[in-house]
């Protein structure tokens, strides 16, 4: 763990001594009430080891500030979780832990997008070859025929091939994005032909669309914002949906992933490259220093790339902007 921040540098001047968590708060919101840099939360977070699930925070809990060997620490007091009414005990229904980030900003995205780490494996995946009555386009309620072996039981997603993500410097293929167009269930398998019923369709289902078991899409709700354990240096690859300019709470694709040490909750700083100018004396082309422009939190890392959510944008971000491990000394904006 990194060195905890000092009272003067890490703590906001208007940080409260105590804060009662309310419904609608996120861990990022609470971090920002106390700290200049929300990713430093784990460095000041101290909890009673007797508290069950200490990393889960609920509405009604109290976060308090105290001195911890000359540095600020944050502690947790559980809110009222049980009311005693003699001679019986009435338990309040289980509370829902606060979210680490505004998950509604990414849940819809995760339902419609996934990445294949090894696009070369695409040829081995099942794919639609026909609709009922030789239709080229199908929808909910229609019968579909796919080539490939599918296991009976789970629901299947129908996907269309989207963007191919490549490393701008090396040309390495980082992943292939698949966009959901519907869901189906397996009726039967005859040889290498699977007969499916389309259960839903957000777009027309077409021949050559990919058939895959639905992946687990639930996000962990107990991760904390934190800096990566290893130095990370990459860039924004794309904005799914084709948006050119990027603002707060937009999803971005990054060219770094699990193999680079990224995990859910890791925060990266976004830096916009400085302009290219011509030296008035020598005529040389110079690159001016970059400008810190925002923060991105990783929520779904794949092996070679990741999806992240823009948590702060002091400028309009763009594809190609650099992302790197945050520096604690960067001023809060």
From TrEMBL:
It comes from the Bacteria. SUPFAM superfamilies: LysM domain (SSF54106). InterPro entries: Bact_Kbp, LysM, LysM_dom_sf. CDD domains: LysM. Residues 17-65 form the LysM domain. This is LysM peptidoglycan-binding domain-containing protein. It comes from Billgrantia campisalis.
